[in-house]
Predict the structure.
Amino acid sequence: MRNFKVALVAILAMVLTACASTPFSPIKMDNNFYQNNNTTIGVYMVAPEKVDTYLIGASCLVCYAAAAAANNALTKHIQTMDVSDFTEVKAELVKMLQDKGQTVVLVEQDLKLNRLKKSKSKTAGFAEQDFTALKSAAGVDKLLVVQIDMLGAQRLYNGYIPTSAPTGAVSGKLFMVDLSNNKLELDQRISEFVAVEGEWDEPTQFPGVTTAYFRAVEQAKSFIKQQL
Amino acid sequence: MRFAIAVLMLLLLSGCAAPKTDDYIRHIQSTSASQQWVSPLPVYLAAAQIELRGEYDSNNATEQLNVLYAGDAGIVGFMAQVAAHAALSNNAQNSRLSEQQLQANKVLEPLAEQLHQLHTVQLTYQTPELSWLAQADPKALYMVSKPIFFLSQDARVLSLKHIVQLEPAAAVVAGKKATALYSNLIEVVAQPLTAERSIEYWQADQGAALIGTMQAMYQQSMALALADVKGQLKQDTQAETFRLAIADKLRIERGNRISASCKQLVFRNLRGWILAMPAQSGHCEPFDVSVNADTTPAASHRDPEKT
């Protein structure tokens, strides 16, 4: 009986441990980073193909269908926005780094980051995926990655029920990895959510939500530039 | 059937409306507004006392209330829960907004003496285009004017949100809502004061600088509104994002440029509202006359930083 209890506790502990996730620890660029200008930095961006609405929490299929239908007019409008309002920042990043004496190239080819293998090393301060394979493909020593997961308007749901008004949203990751050893030189989360000032339900042009979106875009661009 | 009703109801409720604030109006611009123009246009001031409020960030008060729904309540119970959620959420937001406004109004406490002396009649000015009405009087068309002034928490920035509505006279007299021929919000932000002497500046000479700045801002807002009604403001510019550093705060706006000078940027935001903001020196462009000479403000802004 005692063995059974011990086994039960051990199983419970293992199950609960699996639920825990490692808290994210941001990494800032070293103050001496720009003193070494013998390396080539590649600037690479992954962003959604279109600006969109994100209905978070409408998790069941029918919930999502109802939420999507309810936000159809907003989605139609937000999809008319051009992603370049945000993605133009990559050219600014190239210029910023060049102004700091670095050799910089804009990496335009698709590096297929989601297909990278997991890194064997789990050491803190190193990328979870193995980026070293990209050294020859990208032709650079270090890779600055702006990875955008959400670009547009976010609305929170609890099943069928909207629990928030839409907010302007830009979120994702910003990191720089040394392709020779997979070390992270920079690792930050981009998380800009801007509430609509006043009324939001203004079809068909949704000026309040659109303004909130552009505010989120500008704030995200500022945040990224501040990290370099 | 029940499922269909539930989905339909949810679609209707999906507006999940933001709390109503009185510094908001939908822009309406009827082509007949300029055709029905009479000069001088009667202006009806919506309040006798000038309204000055402390400025605060209303975004912090618009978060929604999260509620857990009982799953075994049946369709009627479920509908009741959703309705209760909507009512609670709206009520909570409105009460948060009121609380924040009361808190923000504390910046006005040192100006209590000056505030008692502020009446909207002091904002009126001589112009052949307007006539000021002490009381409603049937005419072809009225401009209803509702100015609300705001003072920032550091007392450095005075701003005006001016709601104007061009309505048929009978509706104004009867106090009824009518379809406005023109309605808009004109926002004017004064040049920020230097930090050290802001409250003293507004208090001095029985609030002379306060009322003087308010008058200049009101005049400009009215001139912009009149030019807009007549269709005289520039409209052919591309939308752009403006990053405006006002005192210590960054304000990001999206809209179409109307005019820019070294001191001020005037643009129309995506809601159609007209905003006149202090511009940063060093980012100046040559002055662009986009408003006809006879509709530019009669008085120029004071420049508090030079006083």
Summary: Chain B is about 30% helix and 25% strand. Residues 285-307 of chain B have pLDDT under 50 and may be disordered. The longest strand of chain B covers residues 249-260.
